[in-house]
Amino acid sequence: MSTTVSGGRSSGDGPSPGSGGPQAPLGGNFLRPSSRRVGERVVLAGLATSALLSVLVTVGIVVSLVLPAVSFWREISIVEFFTGTRWTPTFADPDYGVLPLITGTLWTTAIGLAVAVPLGLAAAMYLSEYANPRVRRIVKPVLEVLAGIPSVVLGYFAVTFFAPDLLRGLLGIGVGAYSVLAAGIVLGVFIVPVIASLAEDAMTAVPDALRQGSAALGANRMSTTLKVVFPAALSGIVAAVVLGVSRAIGETMILAIAAGGRAQMVDSPLLEGQTMTGFIAQTATGENAPGSLAYNTLFAVGLTLFAMTLLINFVSIRLVRRFREAY
Amino acid sequence: MTAIGDLTRPGPPHRRLGRPQAKGDRTVASVAFLIALWLSLLVALTFLVTLLVTTFLDGLVRLDANLLTQYSSQLFPERAGARAAILGTLWVIGTTIVLTVPLGVSAAIYLEEFGDPSKWYFRLVELNIQNLAAVPSIIYGLLTLGVASVLAPLLGLRNVNAVIFGAIALTLLILPVVIIATRESLRAVPAEIRAGSLALGATPWQTVWRQTLPAAVPGIATGTILAVSRAIGEAAPLLLLGAYVFVTFDPNGLFSSFTTMPVQIYNWTSQPQIEFQQVASAGIILLLFMLLLLNGVAILIRNKLQRRW
Predict the structure, then answer these.
(1) N or C: which end of chain A has fewer CB within 10 A?
(2) Nearest CB to A286; choose among B161, B180, B184
């Protein structure tokens, strides 16, 4: 449901404070000619501290991930970690090659996106370009409900119904109890509302003048949607897809439940495979002694995951700037 | 140059054209396109309905009083209940709200009302909050685990499974969402309200506390409720804090061991017995019911209390 908060409101379109928007004389920080009362300053200092806390959290994340990860790499060579193709930390003769986990994550992410991008963009195009207000009032809450379903519920659905009854029973696909295919598809449906909501915002923000111009040139609604509105909203659509990617990589419960617990180099979607998040969730018990190798392993995998999502975020910011059209 | 000036000067208000009418939408390609769009929505809708129906049918037999009053039990799966998980959820989420609302609202007030957007540290905080909103939830679990591993021995706790640590993990998770939602509702309060208050002699803080903040409360409440319902459904960070346990007592304080509804459901899901699958379904129905109720309240507040300026 967080997407409705951050992206679903039209008020986000307004000028941000101090950005020199039309409200400049009154907007932003005109409260600052501050009173000299001590109380006012104390309150202000308190508020500023809360805002700074968020930076502290980021520093905390980095420190708390890096320190145990570094002591992990002191025991296990970093080359072996990133190039090894066997991940068996619980065996008597353990191997710590993270590639199977990364492969698992890439498979589920790719399958998830193959489902979520077409469905999400189609939903966004329909809601933004075709649906009348009455249909929108029905469809949007349905997507919001879908977005609000906890991922543990979707994971449960994937193993109890989707994989055995639908994929194997009805469609005759040879998946086992756990597979990256079933987990990936359910993961994809889970991300549909994220992509749909942000992409719809981006398309709704395209001015009607472009649609009128397109219609005046004789284009029908499909051509207008695909050749005018879609390119014009591309930066927002790219941002929506990228957010979908980082949700897919970071999603945990669906994969911990439905993708399986055996880390292997997955070469077919019908196999089970462990993802990075799945490994952390399945291994963490709260009893791992701090400083032990098992404890540090969690953080080494966590740091790898965090670095990947951070990288995607930066790529996203660059891409959005590259494709931005201002109206 | 006067001619150009005349052209660019806004003329008399003309009728807005709005969206163009559909013409030529009867070609095969465009009908097929529209059907494809419909089918996509239908897939999502069917998925949702199937999920709700199958879960409801599976869990129906276990929607009984035991679900609410009994502890989970390895020996008697047919009587296992979610008592400890329900109480654990209430403790953890209650603590999360107590931590999140003051922190999130103060940070948002600072950024929206007092901060100077031209300063580098302001932009740093802003960019940072956007980035934090995209960090996977399990990373917040690792962060909290790192902190809790240090703090737990100091507090005399046996392990990191304590309500307060669960609440900290969920607070970190939803704080960026609450900050972003609060900023948006503060931004929607017209500047004239602030100017009027200042003109009557109120100090900046009095203006915020007595005018701006009360006007923004419905928006803040909606955003917070939606964020909290995300926290209620979240299991991943709590797994790292050892919430994956059969708790057979009522959690009774901030340092008490706990499990929560989603973690309990995950736990039941991983047990082989069919009775555990049934009680997992019943637990899911209970969880979804709680979430729907919360979302209903949020929508009600949005529709009834939110003011349009």
Answers:
(1) C
(2) B161
